[in-house]
Write a structure and sequence with these properties.
Elements (H helix, E strand, L loop, with lengths): L1 E2 L5 H13 L5 E2 L2 E2 L2 H5 L3 E6 L2 H6 L1 H7 E7 L1
Parallel strand pairs: 1-2, 4-5
Antiparallel strand pairs: 3-4
């Protein structure tokens, strides 16, 4: 699951635990830029999580981002 919200960190951590109990993973990936830039495929994505999860979700970032910033 990819969470692109700008929720507070505690909410994201609770969501990650819920998702993991269901046997899935969560990648925290808030988006930056404007709706126009989103339409043009020029978003910035701040991807959080361990490297294997970021790599697993990289196909998503290639579709929507201009620059993906891994954040640990």
């Amino acid at each position: 699951m990819v969470d692109c919200s700008t929720a507070n960190p505690e909410a994201t951590e609770r969501l990650a635990k819920t998702v993991e109990r269901q046997g899935a993973i969560l990648v925290d990936a808030p988006l930056a830029r404007t709706p126009r830039e989103a339409k043009d495929g020029r978003l910035n994505v701040m991807v959080g999580g361990d490297a294997s999860r970021v790599k697993l979700s990289s196909c998503v970032w290639r579709a929507v981002e201009r620059v993906a910033y891994p954040v640990d």
